[in-house]
Design a protein that fits this description.
357 residues; alpha/beta; three-stranded mixed beta sheet; 17% strand; globular; SAM-dependent_MTases_sf
């Protein structure tokens, strides 16, 4: 019952926030209904041209990393699965001067995972074939100098723990002290939800693992708020959420951390069809974040350099979209907010011009 009550209370706060603001209450660019419709049509055309799920496209991460000015960034990854996306995050946030040149998925796969425990899992290369992603081209970006990078990874699926352990040994070998001194990958075998304690979890999963009431066994769960308090975290520079349809619960469990703007940016997976029948709408999630001072967008992709503004430029076309896509959000006042507005399709509609790729 505690689980249901906590979800209900946080959902109520999200809905309360939405009743005090129109869809256009945002510090960035506003749009008219006509502009919202045009932007949605352009976004739909781009979605129709996708050759793989939008969630597989991580083109936006280098830009977010370049706008992370801290010399000691902290990234939190919820649902790190086999570790391929975390490898990308390490590589992108280190930028040009990574202490370990193998911080990318194909390096992990070719040098280690082919002979490790991942090979025993269904689809060992990942749903997006991410194990084949090579060293990223970062020449278009200027990155701040880093001194230390920490990534905290949460993965409750026990069958993935040996995979992550092997990946950690590959990235951070004991004989490579430079890497150990400059970066840490902290793997936590917990779920992240809206309450801490024991929660039901799907046992036989490799990638689409879900927290479900009808699960056959329990795992320990924490919240982002609890992590921030217990670990005395002043700031999370980027939060990645892949919770197989339960991203809203992770966001609700980060309420106080978001409220004090202690998370600079985040991205979460959204699937309009989802894995649950009673999950909140995308609009409710975006309004919840807007009420806490965050603006959200559909991100740039390998096909398009534009960001499609969701906060303050809502369209019903965004609800129930097929397939899984990334939604990116940035706190108000962060330099990245203005930059994304400048790169938005809405800005193009207003000024009838293109943008530099």
């Amino acid at each position: 019952m505690g689980w249901l009550i906590s979800v209900g209370l946080l959902l109520s706060s999200a809905l309360l926030a939405s009743t005090h603001m129109s869809g256009d209450t945002d510090e960035g660019l506003m749009c008219s209904r006509r502009q919202a419709r045009k932007q949605a049509n352009a976004w739909a055309a781009e979605k129709a041209s996708e050759t793989q799920a939008g969630v597989c496209d991580m083109s936006f991460i280098p830009r977010f990393a370049a706008y992370t000015s801290s010399k000691n960034p902290l990234i939190v990854s919820v649902g790190c699965s086999r570790g391929y996306h975390d490898a990308l995050m390490f590589g992108y946030f280190w930028g040009h001067d990574s202490p370990a040149p193998a911080f990318y998925p194909s390096g992990l796969n070719e040098n280690h995972m082919d002979h490790g425990p991942a090979i025993a899992l269904p689809n060992p290369c990942g749903k997006c074939n991410e194990c084949k992603v090579g060293e990223p081209n970062l020449t278009r970006f200027t990155f701040p100098q880093r001194e230390h990078l920490q990534l905290v990874c949460f993965e409750p699926a026990s069958r993935l723990h040996p995979v992550l352990s092997h990946a950690s040994d590959f990235f951070f070998p004991s004989y490579w002290p430079q890497v150990l001194a400059q970066a840490r990958w902290i793997i936590q075998p917990h779920a992240v939800a809206d309450v801490a304690g024991r929660v039901g979890f799907t046992p036989d999963c490799a990638q689409n693992c879900s927290i479900e009431a009808a699960s056959r066994f329990n795992v320990s769960a924490t919240t982002i708020d609890r992590l921030a308090v217990l670990s005395k975290i002043a700031r999370i520079h980027h939060l990645r959420i892949n919770a197989a349809g339960h991203e809203d619960k992770v966001l609700y469990g980060a309420h106080h951390t978001l409220q004090r703007h202690a998370i600079d940016s985040l991205h979460f997976h959204y699937n309009g069809r989802g894995y649950r029948t009673r999950k909140p709408s995308l609009q409710a999630m975006v309004m919840y974040l807007a009420g806490l001072g965050y603006g959200c967008y559909w991100p740039e992709s390998v096909r398009s350099p534009y960001y499609y503004k969701i906060t303050g430029c809502w369209s019903e076309a965004y609800e129930g979209v097929g397939g899984t896509s990334n939604v990116v959000c940035v706190r108000n006042g962060h330099p990245l907010r203005e930059h994304l507005d400048d790169r938005s399709h809405l800005a193009v509609l207003r000024h009838n011009t293109g943008i530099a790729v």
